[in-house]
Known about the structure:
Helix 1 packs parallel to helix 3, helix 2 packs parallel to helix 4 (58-70) and helix 9 (184-198) runs parallel beside helix 10. Helix 10 links the parallel strand 4 and strand 5. The chain starts with 8 loop residues before the first helix and ends with a strand. The protein has a four-stranded mixed sheet with strand order 1-4-5-13, with helices on both faces. The chain has a four-stranded antiparallel sheet with strand order 6-9-11-7, sandwiched between helices. The longest helix has 17 residues, at 218-234. The protein folds into three domains: 9-55, no CATH class; 78-323, 3-Layer(aba) Sandwich (Pyrimidine Nucleoside Phosphorylase, Chain A, domain 2), CATH 3.40.1030.10; 330-415, Pyrimidine nucleoside phosphorylase-like, C-terminal domain (Aldehyde Oxidoreductase, domain 3), CATH 3.90.1170.30. The chain is globular, with a radius of gyration of 22 Å. It has helices at 9-17, 24-36, 41-54, 58-70, 98-106, 126-130, 142-150, 166-176, 184-198, 218-234, 257-267, 273-289, 297-302, 305-316, 347-359, 401-407; strands spanning 85-89, 112-116, 155-159, 202-209, 238-245, 253-255, 330-335, 340-345, 373-376, 383-384, 389-395, 412-415, 425-429. It has 431 residues and is α/β, with parallel strands linked by helices. The structure holds uracil. Uracil (URA) is lined by residues 172, 181, 186-187, 190-191. Residues 172, 181, 186-187, 190-191 line the site of uracil.
Amino acid sequence: xxxxxxxxxxxxxxxKRDGGAVPEPALRWMVDAYTRGYVSDxxxxxxxxxxxxxxMERSEIQVLTDAMIASGERMDFAGLGKRTVDKHSTxxxxxxxxxxxxxxxxxxxxxxxQLSGRGLGHTGGTLDKLEAIPGxxxxxxxxxxxxxxxxxxGAVICAAGSGLAPADKKLYxxxxxxxxxxAIPLIASSIMSKKIAEGTDALVLDVKFGSGAFMQDIDRAxxxxxxxxxxxTDSGVATTALLTDMNVPLGLAIGNANxxxxxxxxxxxxxxxxxxxLTIALAREMLTLAGQPDADVEGALDDGRAMDTWKAMIxxxxxxxxxxxxxxxxxxxxxxxxxGIVTGMEALPFGIAAWRLGAGRARAEDQVVHAAGIDLHVKxxxxxxxxxxxxxxxxxxEARFPRALEALEGAWTLGDTAPExxxxxxxxxxx
Length: 431
Ligand code: URA
């Protein structure tokens, strides 16, 4: 006979529903019992909704994070002989920064263990983007990951194994279908449980606010950033965060293959100004945590060092960095109806449109179309003439265009006066 369970899920749910703090042993049990399948999806969904509505104290978030870490394995890079620094973005539209950033930082002799995910909904996934490169392989064993970081390459971008924070994997899938994603305690514990379990020495968070982000509002994004920085720091991971604007798509490419193309431009010393700026800002932050505050980050982009590491990183995972990337069968160009200045371009509808073109998936089991997406030809502040191309939609099938165009209705505006464009990086959050 199995041992009796020490708590009842309904008592834990009621405690949170009524606004109380859940005692540490009961909270640890709830996470463990859910991972084992004793607590049902219905009970956990109810608990997640209670957290969504009532919030959690910092001490509860710490326990929740710790319980999710304890549900799986902890990786250990202590034998590498190098500092490890990772980065996490809370996700946005056109956010391909990890691609140039990981090899750039690794080119300074720092190890970068980037365990990444696939896209669901309008935000893209790093692995989906890299899989646009012929041959590239996302699944690595822990040993392969270790060897790649220890050797000359230094950077690894790969899929997180199923052993890392399995409680989060189960809970995140449940939150995704129960309207409980956007709760600060749940987002913070989900992200930080994986990053702490991964065993990195240091972590830089890119916490986004604006129309294309989880947190529309900068104050909520700041609260999320402060919560995650505190969780990391308390667990011995040197953690800082940048609060960055996600109201407008990042760069000029939204999709998969086109985002790889744009990342390679940045690695070649060019690329759109915002992508280069954010890559450099995050690299500085990571290298500062790794003890290299004066590293010549721009120099490594401009003289080919970061590109050499990128090529080595792609080859190490069986990809061909010089192979042509897929291109779409069908394109549709949207043009300006009048002369004017682009005054706005809202990230979220562009993310949804790219998703509807096939760049993202609606269900976890769907395949993405690597060549699908949107290429922007203008950004806010640019002057345009009637008939000028504003952006190009790409898809495998032209039947995809009407719904993508529907998502884009009202998503950009033309006017007479140049818009005020605020800084991309708004704040730096430290412990
Ligand atoms: N990414 C995660 O890993 N978890 C969340 O809850 C949100 C974004």
